[in-house]
Amino acid sequence: MAVPQHKLSLAEFLEWENAHSDRHEFHRGEVFAMVGGRRSHGRVVANLVRHLGNVLDGSPCQIFSESMKVQVADDTLLYPDVFVTCDKADLATEMIFRAPALVIEVLSPSTQAYDRSQKFALYRRIPALREYVLLDPDTRRAEAFRRTADGGWTFHDMSEDAVLSLPVIEAGVPLADVFQGVDASP
User: Residue 33 forms beta bridges with which residues?
Assistant: First the structure.
């Protein structure tokens, strides 16, 4: 007979994770280790932070990356690759953000299915979220889901466009700059 495993509360998880150097996502009492990324993943994240950070200078919004937690619900904490928040409470926090307007995930072969399905389903629970972007360094695909006025989501494929358009923050970054330093797959 199997013994039920103890599920952590959010407070228990935060205490546990703060004692560890590795990052872990948390969903419904379960802990999931975050694996290290590839060079191309880190390159795209760094490019986004640099270019969007420059665009956002002087605005009421700020950009954050990989090491910052976003609380999706009372039972879920995630680590987006990149996110932008304009929320005053978020901009005053040191640890947990709750109201990103934009989340960007950089895909890898091992996380692509999760980022496209379950993780997107979790992010959709955030009322402030207006745009969810998926970037694939291997194929150079750029896709966005944007919340509509009625609460639905529309799909926008920007893979053939010259610019990654991010209307939620009134910004755009040339795709050549997003993927700069990333070798195209053969």
Answer: 24
Question: 101: buried, middle or exposed (CB in 10 Å: 19+, 13-18, 0-12)?
Answer: buried
Please report which confidence band the pLDDT of residue 73 belongs to, taking 50, 70 and 90 as the band edges.
Answer: confident
DSSP the chain: -PPPPPPPPHHHHHHHHHT-SS-EEEETTEEEEPPPPPHHHHHHHHHHHHHHHHHHTTSS-EEEETT-EEEEETTEEE--SEEEE--HHHHH-SSEE--EEEEEEE--TTTHHHHHTHHHHHHTT-TT--EEEEEETTTTEEEEEEE-TTS-EEEEE-TTSSEEEEGGGTEEEEHHHHTTT-PPP-
Model's pTM, two decimal places? 0.83
Say what the pLDDT of residue 108 is.
Answer: 87
Token code pair at residue 154: 């529309």
